[in-house]
């Protein structure tokens, strides 16, 4: 489990770091080109949009890992011991079902899109390529929720907050 955790951490960090770097460079280059030469690269806005979607969905997986998703914890804070543990387990199981089913249905949408070959307007790439971001992010979230369920039953194996960051 620790090896999987390290591999996922590294993958998420590299993907998000690279995407943010590319977004920053594309925006910088486009701004310079527009102000100095009166022209820009026509596909940068679309590429930046796709990369920001990638950052959002991979970032959602990191939020699961760090426990930083938005939550209403009124009931959770009232509970103690086993009741708190069971509520957490139920929440994570619901999240696993939701993210796994959304990943599955997004794959169906991608399959439909592959048949009709819709293309991105500026980049002229098949739209199923950027659509792959959705099942990737949801699959990562599903894995992270399964890890959290594992850590409920084996709390000694859970990485510390510093390791999770």
Describe the secondary structure blueprint for this structure.
Blueprint: H1 2-37, H2 44-66, H3 74-78, H4 81-116, H5 128-131, H6 133-153, H7 161-164
Membrane topology: Multi-pass membrane protein
Main location: membrane
GO biological process, one term: C4-dicarboxylate transport
Description:
This protein has one domain. Helix 1 (2-37) packs antiparallel against helix 2 (44-66) and helix 2 (44-66) runs parallel beside helix 6 (133-153). It is mainly α and 165 residues long. It has helices at 2-37, 44-66, 74-78, 81-116, 128-131, 133-153, 161-164. The mean pLDDT is 93. Helices cover 78% and strands 0% of the residues. This is TRAP transporter small permease. One of its GO terms (molecular function) is transmembrane transporter activity. Its main location: membrane. Belongs to the TRAP transporter small permease family.
What is the CA-based Rg, rounded? 20 Å
Overall domain count: 1
Amount of beta strand? under 5%
Main beta-sheet strand count, sense and barrel state: none
Query: Count of helical segments?
Result: 7
Question: What is the averaged pLDDT score?
Answer: 93
Number of strands: 0
- Counting helices, strands and paired strands, the structural category is mainly alpha
Give the overall form. elongated
Helix content: over 70%
Order of helices and strands: HHHHHHH
Kindly report how far apart the N and C termini lie. Answer: 17 Å
Oligomer state equals single chain
Low-confidence stretches: none
């Amino acid at each position: 489990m620790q090896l999987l955790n390290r591999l996922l951490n590294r993958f998420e960090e590299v993907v998000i770091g690279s995407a943010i770097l590319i977004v920053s460079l594309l925006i910088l280059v486009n701004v310079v080109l527009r102000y100095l030469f009166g022209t820009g690269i026509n596909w940068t806005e679309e590429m930046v949009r796709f990369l920001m979607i990638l950052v959002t969905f991979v970032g959602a997986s990191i939020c699961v890992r760090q426990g930083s998703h938005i939550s209403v914890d009124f009931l959770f804070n009232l509970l103690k011991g086993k009741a708190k543990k069971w509520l957490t387990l139920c929440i994570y199981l619901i999240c696993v079902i939701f993210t796994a089913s959304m990943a599955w249905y997004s794959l169906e949408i991608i399959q439909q899109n592959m048949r009709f070959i819709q293309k991105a307007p500026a980049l002229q790439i098949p739209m199923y390529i950027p659509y792959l971001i959705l099942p990737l992010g949801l699959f990562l979230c599903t894995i992270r929720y399964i890890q959290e369920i594992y850590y409920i039953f084996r709390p000694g194996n859970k990485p510390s907050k510093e390791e999770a960051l």
